[in-house]
Amino acid sequence: MKIAYLLNSVSRKAGGLFEICKRLAQTTCREKEIVVLGVEDEFTKTDIVEWAPLRPTVSSPVFARSFGYAPGYAQYLAEICPDIAHVHGLWTYPSFVGYRWHRRTNRHLIYTAHGMLSPWALRNSAWKKRLVRALWEDAAHRSAACFHVNSEAEHLTLRRHGLRIPICIIPNGIDLPASQSSEVGSLESGLASVARGRKLLLYLGRLHPKKNLVNLIRAWKEALNSHPSTLNSWMLGIAGWDQGGHEKKLKRLARELGMSFVEVGIAGARKHQTSNIEHRTSNDASVIFLGPRFGAGRDACYRACDAFVLPSLSEGLPMTVLEAWAYAKPVLMTPECNLPEGFVAGAALQIGTTSKEIAAGLKQLIEMSDDDRKAMGARGRALVAETFSWRRIGEQMRSVYEWVLSGGTPPETIRL
């Protein structure tokens, strides 16, 4: 069995897909059974080592990097001639390459949408996606041997789109964090010096309109207005990489609402970060912008926070919620995060997407006792340990590959 993973980016530029695809590849197949293809970007040289023992093959892009057109990509796929091409993500050149390869060879094709067919996602840059769907994307999906989704909600969305091929429902996985290192401890100390004894409510991820951070900031202001003492006991931390200038919009909104904020800079490379704190505004801030966080910096954020929030308008299955639970943190999230088992297990509070609905959830979280928040976080850690371990996810995905190649009784994850 030889599986080819077809990705646009194999670095942090892919956002959550970087960790998802990397760990799925590492846990599903033995080293010689899987090859990974990607398109080079500014982070590739730094991040490619994290795929070990795998070594992705990257092609140089031409023209628009976001589309991922790279002439060497299709040639390499033809040379390795895998049994299955597993395309991660839609709308870009790797998806087209996979479909064209399938038509030429009649070998198997699997797609993973990663939430890219949700109603919100389809409305974003809608005309471009309608064009791509008409040119090849819809035909590619219909010709696939199987479509991989992360949740029952995503499965139902695809059926509503008229997709009638087999669909496997396999969630993303998570690694439970190891014990704290001395480096992480120093980073946590830096964050604590800014919080000045206050608890930290963390958002971590892309700074993008889909994440609904505008309404989160508005809700935070409402919480401060209704409970002024919150300013003395909590801070809202926003960590992540900017996309399309959204960070400036968030900071402008905070100023317009009369909320002071602090920005924290971390000096050094991704794996050699130090707690070099740069104060640019008042020390009495209610919001802290933490910038992009990777590696030890990301770990420090989760360890330092007291709760996690994801007010998204649309998700596939968010890694950041699984990560927060792995660190035993209580979570506030919308139903659009597609993790209803978190509500059932008592590991998360459900919030809506409006600022008023988010503010109600914030009020509930803040009024909980420390013991109740810790108990909620512990239930989250137990949930991911039982249901979302990468070992379990890898075994499920491997059984799908074997079924596609050999037939027989479908695995329990398959919906025909």
Summarize the entry for a quick read.
The chain is built from 17 helices and 15 strands. With 416 residues, the chain is of the alpha/beta class. The strands form two sheets. An eight-stranded mixed sheet has the order 3-2-1-4-5-6-7-15, sandwiched between helices. A seven-stranded parallel sheet has the order 10-11-9-8-12-13-14, with helices on both faces.
- Which CATH architecture of the largest domain? 3-Layer(aba) Sandwich
Give the CATH superfamily of the largest domain.
Glycogen Phosphorylase B
CATH class of the largest domain: Alpha Beta
Radius of gyration: 22 Å
Descriptive keywords:
416 residues; alpha/beta; Rossmann fold; 2 domains; eight-stranded mixed beta sheet; seven-stranded parallel beta sheet; 45% helix
Give a verbal description of the structure.
The protein has 416 residues and is of the alpha/beta class. It has 2 domains: 3-173 and 389-415, Glycogen Phosphorylase B (Rossmann fold), CATH 3.40.50.2000; 182-387, Glycogen Phosphorylase B (Rossmann fold). It contains 17 helices and 15 strands. It has helices at 16-28, 44-47, 71-80, 93-105, 119-123, 126-143, 152-160, 182-195, 213-226, 230-233, 246-256, 295-304, 319-326, 340-344, 355-367, 370-387, 390-406, and strands at 3-6, 34-39, 57-59, 84-88, 108-112, 146-149, 167-169, 199-204, 234-239, 261-263, 287-291, 307-310, 331-333, 348-350, 414-415. The strands form 2 sheets. An 8-stranded mixed β-sheet has the order 3-2-1-4-5-6-7-15, with helices on both faces. Strands 10-11-9-8-12-13-14 form a 7-stranded parallel β-sheet, sandwiched between helices. Strand 1, helix 1 and strand 2 form a beta-alpha-beta unit. Helix 4 (93-105) packs parallel to helix 6. It starts with a strand and ends with a strand. The model is unreliable at 267-282 (pLDDT under 50).
